[in-house]
Amino acid sequence: MKFTDGFWQMRSGVHASYATEVRDVRLDDDRLAAYAAVKRVERRGDTLNAPLITVEAHAPAEGVIAVRLTHHAGKRRKGPDFELPGAATRSSATTRTEGATAELTSGPLTLRLPTEGTFGLEFLDADGRTLTSAGRKGSAFATVDDGSHHMFAQLALGVGETVHGLGERFTPYVKNGQTVDMWQADGGTSSEQAYKNIPFYLSSRGYGVFVNHPGKVSFEVGSEAVGQVQFSVEDQTLEYFVVAGPTPKDVLSRYAALTGLPALPPAWSFGLWLTTSFTTSYDEATVTSFVDGMAERGIPLSVFHFDCFWMREYQWCDFEWDPAVFPDPEGMIARLKDKGLKICVWINPYIGQKSALYEEGAEKGYFVLTPDGDIWQWDKWQAGMALVDFTNPEATAWFQAKLKVLLDQGVDGFKTDFGERIPTDVVWHDGSDTERMHNYYTHLYNKAVFELLEEERGQGEAVLFARSAAAGGQQYPVHWGGDCWSSFEAMAESLRGGLSLSLSGFGFWSHDIGGFEGTPDPAVFKRWLAFGLLSSHSRLHGSSSYRVPWEFGDEAVDVARQFTRLKHRLMPYLYGVAVEAHRTGVPTMRPLLLEFPDDPTARSVDREYLLGPDVLVAPVFTDDGEVEYYVPEGTWTHLLTGDTVTGPAWRRETHGFDSLPLLVRQGAVLPLGADESRPDGEWLDGLELRVFVPAGTGDFTRTVTVPDRTGAVAATYEVAYEGGEVHVTTATDRPYTVTVVGGPA
To answer: Residue 466 in contact with residue 478, Cβ under 8 Å?
Structure first.
């Protein structure tokens, strides 16, 4: 929200009060509090009839400093609040005073503020350099003539500093100059709205900021005060965390550890998913023809997904198969599983009035109510639909019990769609604040489904295909990019959203190959296939038309086959990257900023990404195959052609539909599997260690770890390049091969 009218004036009806002068500072061993007057106090009478802003600081985790600004502390906190599973039971900070300055330090991060005179906050790194600061207008509240009360903060932006993240956003990747509101919306992928609003941003200067408020947070990223990031909430209290680096990877690791590290998805989920699409006509014969058609064409398939109309019309959700279309669901699932497939079905948290579950849920009090005590209902999406109240533990258990029936039938995972259209004129079972619950609802929804899967299938076997998320939602992978059009432009905007989400703590992300709305041109579909099968997770899905590759020509079949098999070969590498995401929070799909933080060009690149640390992917967004992409520092080898390129440099190339810029960093050792038929094969059988040796290089060593399908270490290889020869040391007795690419000129 903007409060000012230019630099000098306030907007009509807005009255702002800024922390101006320190009146008192209190230090404990691990926290501090400051009391700031909002005007200069020149005599005793100036302390009357004027507010104080209370500023409290502590460290919820090492390298993270929390700052809480409060005007009136008496407002009852109704919740919900973000879960912070990585928060320490007590502040992990130390305090000290030196002259007229107080400091609170946690790991490599220090907060400094004056104990006398002008108020200000300064955040320093381990070397004493200023990362950011809250200056003369940096800690404040504003009242508006409409009766609303807002707390806001401003943190300084340095010259050339860029801001990234804030959830899955489809607007420009660099957020400088944008107004970004945290408010869940079912807005597709081509507007400022987002399904996944995460009040966390990552700075190119090596720190992050997390606003600990699940409701509407309004960010002005250099868009009101151009040298500041401002964030505001309509509340009496605002709490934000500054997260230390020094590298962007360190920032993400600290943030993800605090809000929840992502679970490790099962290896089978990395294979190709095929769906019925949304409103198309299908029955078991249709599904079988799709599955058999993929097999006949040599395209490995791992998961089949049934979208909404597996249930009867108007009855979403009753979690019962439409008997007119699927008269033998258990038998059908068994027959599909005999073909080696996992099964996913679509769900949402809404219960239509025609559903048999409506009366049951209404009688038991499991739905969200209006202030008058009626069941909240509307006709958007499903006629007379009600909303399951996940703040009620009994309602959550009831919802999970309905899903368990499907798991008992053989279903393996759920597409947890929707969760964004949450009303604010309602009453929640636990008394939650409706504005805070609007964004947070999806967290409870996805958590309920994911925890059921873990309970029934075991840890490491649970996977969602979720559209909406709140902070901490990365714990329940996988998330996909929502409803996009079938065009090159939509393909690019989807990637922007995924890159922003990856810089918001999410380790795994996917998108609808070919686009959701409309029917893609064959060129769009084939280019999107390569992109999709070089993403964390890969799904063929559409709205009103099928996405089986042969609908788009024989060449599309060839492209689907080639890149699916390539992804399977990459699984020893890719699953190792997934394990890293699970353990550290560093995502599988990485913006160049993460690996090359000191490269100014890398900070703004949004049409390519790194798959793990060593593989660069530049999707092609044109029919004719022309692609312009950036090569970071070093020498890189095209995985598909063997050609080498050297950066830093921009390149323009032309690629057929069977190719794209897919570069491996020289000095890397890429473990490749021999089994092209499935993603969860035995990776050590016929493992190839492909060693990329830079021309004219000296000696180097790399440690390569190949996980098993649980994420544990299956084998470790010490690869040394010495005197023009490669030497490998390993404890495993499993045979492997070594391929050397490149070497001295």
So the answer is: yes
Model confidence, pTM: 0.97
Strand order, beta sheet including 101-106: 94-98, 101-106, 109-114, 121-124, 130-134
In the numeric block, the tokens 């009855």 are attached to 315
The type of residue at 319 is F
Q: Which of 338, 468, 348, 463 is nearest to 413 (CA)?
A: 463
The residues with which 637 forms a beta bridge, in sequence order, are 644, 664
pLDDT band at 68 (very low <50, low <70, confident <90, very high): very high
Question: Residue 117: left if φ>0, alpha if ψ -120 to 50, beta else—which one?
Answer: left
Catalytic residues: 417, 420, 483
Kindly report the number of other CB atoms within 10 A of residue 148's CB atom. Answer: 13
| Neighbour-count burial for 715-728, b at 16+ CB within 10 Å, e otherwise | bebebebeeeebee
Of 720, 714, 718, the C-alpha closest to 734 is 714
Average pLDDT over residues 564-570: 98
Report pLDDT digits (tens) over 579-626.
Answer: 999 999 999 999 999 999 999 999 999 999 999 999 999 999 999 999
> 343 with 407: CB under 8 angstroms?
no
Structure tokens at 660: 């794209």
Q: DSSP letter at 262?
A: P
Burial of 598 (0-12, 13-18, 19+ CB in 10 A): exposed
According to DSSP, the residues that pair with 427 across neighbouring strands are 369
State how beta strands 272-275 and 303-306 pair: parallel
Closest C-alpha to 501, from 596, 581, 602? 581
8 Å CB contact between 78 and 50: no
264, 270, 276, 279: CA torsion to nearest 10: 60
* Tokens representing residue 410 in the block: 């053989």
Contact 195, 482 (CB under 8 A): yes
State the sign of the Cα–Cα–Cα–Cα dihedral 72, 78, 82, 88: positive
Beta-carbon neighbour count of residue 206 at 10 Å?
Answer: 21
- Which pair of structure tokens corresponds to residue 229? 């990031």
Contacts of 476 (CB under 8 A, 6+ apart): 263, 446, 447, 449, 450, 464, 466, 469
Rounded Cα–Cα distance for residues 667 and 721 (Å): 9
Q: What is the DSSP string of 136-199?
A: TTSEEEEEETTS-EEEEEEEEPPTT--EEESSS--S-SS-TTEEEE--B---TTSSS-BSB---
DSSP run (H or E) holding 1: none
